[in-house]
Amino acid sequence: MQEGEEGDKSTSDTVARIPPHCHITIKCTREIAGFNGLSEAVRRLDFSSAVRDVRRFNYICALLELLLGGQRLTHLPGAAQKLLLSMLEQLADHVATSKHNPEALRALAAALGGAREAERRACWGRPLGSRALWRHHDRAIARITRIAQDIRIPEPGPEVMPKLHDLPEECIREIMLRISDHRDLDAASSAWSVMASLCSERRVWRELVLFHFTQQQLSTVLAKDETDVDWKKTFHQLRKVYGLREEAQFAETLSLCRHCKCLFWRSLGHPCIADQCPEYRERLKEAGGPLPPHPVPPAAFLKFFSL
Fold it and tell me: Does the keyword Calcium apply (predicted)?
C-alpha cells in the first residue's frame, strides 16, 4: 500500500514540475483543423498565478485591459467570462495585499464597470444572456470595485529610513533613467518637484528614445549633424510614427516556440520537441540550429483566438 502511495506521489510530483504551456493552432488546413479556446489557454498558461508574479503582472493587466475594451468581454463564452472575472478578483486581492499598482487595478475596475453599463444599455435595460450568469458577474464586479476603492497606502512611519525624499538627486536620476514608459515619467513629474526637474533633463528622454527606437528610425526625424536635440519632442514624434516596442514594456511576455507551436513563459520554459526527440534535434543541427522563440505581446496573443 505504501509503495503504491509513493508511486502516486512521485507521479504527481513529476506532473507538477511540468511548466505551464499551451499548444496552439497557427492556421487551419485540409489536413489540420484546429480551434484555439481562450479559456483553455488561460488555464494551461496558469494566468491565475501570473497575477501574483511581479514580472508578469503588467502583461496580465495589459491583456485584461484589451479584453475589457471594445466590449470584448461580453462577447466571450460564459465560461471564459467567469474565468477572466476570477482572474480580476485574484488580481484585486493581490494588489490589496501588496499595495502595489493600485492605479492599474482602479483603471481595470473602471473599464469593467463601463463594459457592464454598456451591456445593460444595449439590451432593454438588462444584459443579454443568462440572468444567473450576470448575477454572478454583478457580485464579482461589485467586489472588485469595492476592493479598488478601499485600497489606502499608508505613509511610512518615522522609523522607516531612508525615504524617497531623503535620497540624493543622483539616486533619483538613476531611478528615472530606468523608467521605460513615458506616462510614468509624466506622473513622476507631477508628484514631486525634484522629479519634475530631473524629467526636464535631456538625458532622461534621450535614453528613452534609444531604448524604444533604432538608429534608422531616429535618422528619419533628426538631421545628420544636429546637436541641440529636443529629445522629449523627438520621442513623441517617433512614437506617433512607429509606435513603441510593445514587448519591451513588460518584464516578461509569453513566447511562441517555432518548433512545437507552443505558448509558454520564457523564464519557466516548456517541454519542446527539439529537446525530446533526438532525430528532430539532429535535423535542426543540420539546418543551422534551433530558432529562438518569438515574443508574443498581449495584442498578438489575442489574435490566436476568435474574439
Answer: no
- Is residue 221 within 8 A of residue 238, CB to CB? The reply is yes
| 173 has a pLDDT exceeding 80 | yes
What is the model's pTM? 0.78
Q: Which residues of 108-120 are buried (b: 16+ CB within 10 A; e: fewer)?
A: bbebbbebbeebe
Dihedral angle, C-alpha 297, 180, 269, 45, nearest 10 °: -50
SS3 205: helix
Structural domain including 206 reads 181-220+230-236
Q: Which pairs from 44-50 meet CB under 8 Å and 24+ separation?
A: 44/20, 45/20, 45/21, 45/254, 45/263, 45/264, 45/265, 46/20, 47/87, 48/86, 48/87, 48/90, 49/20, 50/265
Percent of the chain at pLDDT > 90 equals: 41
Domain boundary residue, one of 202, 236, 270: 236
Provide DSSP, 124-160. TTS-SS-HHHHHHHHHHHHHHHHHHHH---PPPPTTS
In the predicted model, what is the mean pLDDT of the chain? 84
